[in-house]
Design brief:
Blueprint: E1 21-28, E2 33-40, H1 53-68, E3 71-77, H2 84-95, E4 99-105, H3 113-127, E5 136-138, H4 150-161, H5 167-180, E6 185-186, E7 189-190, E8 193-200, E9 205-210, H6 218-232, E10 240-244, H7 251-256
Parallel strand pairs: 3-4, 4-5, 9-10
Antiparallel strand pairs: 1-2, 6-7, 8-9
Helix pairs in contact: 5-6
Length: 257
């Protein structure tokens, strides 16, 4: 149902949806009217249970849709959330650089909702650390409860996915971050980060000049990414940080000699 209009056929049995079905509508948010194009993909059963050729094609179509989406809403079962396949799909969406929202269906069957929500939050942060603070929208497709939480979560991660930070602010942050926790020394020489700029959005992507970039530990790179998240309030979406060696202004002169 979209608004007050029934649009798609669904049910508890797997395999009802075979093709990706697109539905267009407009959603009125707090500050603007959002055009939305929703692709309802086939549900993905465990690989061992996917038998027919048609169902295999449906799964391939759903995976392809993830690669071209802007925001991916992954629908989980409240009674058995974050199964192995759920995590594989979530990981694929984040590796592809998509914004991700976790929707949890059958919330009407959960008795202690506060405890269940705490567990979901802990599981999401632990199992998907590459997107801390990932939005979770519990809902019931049967009763309609909680559906009003879904689109605000979708639009917020879309805004964060398009976040842009000014270069002077980034470099002020970099100076403070490296002063507070300096990069490590390798073979007696300290790694230096000298400049950072955002090169694109969707997802937010940053390039930093870094001496001996290939030797910077992954833990320090995580420190920088988490620092960008906290300093500029970019939550729950993938952040890409690319490290490049500074240009050597004397390289061409040496070649000419």
């Amino acid at each position: 149902m979209i608004g007050d209009e029934n649009r798609l056929l669904t049910g508890p049995e797997a395999g009802i949806t075979r093709d990706s079905i697109s539905v267009e509508w407009r959603w009125q948010g707090k500050d603007r009217d959002w055009p939305v194009k929703l692709f309802d993909t086939a549900g993905m059963r465990k690989k061992s249970r996917v038998q027919s050729k048609l169902e295999k094609l449906s799964v391939a179509d759903a995976l392809r849709a993830i690669k071209f989406a802007e925001v991916v809403v992954l629908l989980l079962d409240a009674e058995k959330p974050f199964e192995k396949q759920d995590l594989q799909i979530a990981d694929l969406a984040l590796r592809e650089g998509r914004a991700l929202v976790i929707a949890v269906n059958k919330w009407d069957l959960i008795e202690d909702k506060n405890d269940a929500m705490r567990n979901l939050r802990e599981m999401a942060d632990r199992l998907l650390p590459q997107a801390p603070g990932l939005p979770i929208a519990p809902l019931s497709a049967k009763t309609g409860a909680g559906l009003n939480r879904l689109m605000p979560a979708v639009t917020q991660v879309y805004i964060d996915w398009n976040a842009r930070v000014k270069t002077p602010e980034l470099n002020d942050w970099l100076h403070e971050a490296t002063s507070r926790h300096a990069p490590p020394a390798v073979s007696g020489q300290r790694i230096k980060l000298r400049y950072i700029a955002q090169t694109k959005t969707r997802p937010p992507t940053f390039v930093a000049q870094c001496t001996r970039a290939e030797e910077l530990p992954a833990s320090y790179k995580r420190y920088l990414v988490n620092g960008i998240r906290d300093a500029f309030d970019i939550k729950a979406v993938p952040i890409r940080l690319i490290l490049k060696k500074p240009n050597n202004p004397y390289a061409n002169k040496k070649e000419r000699r």
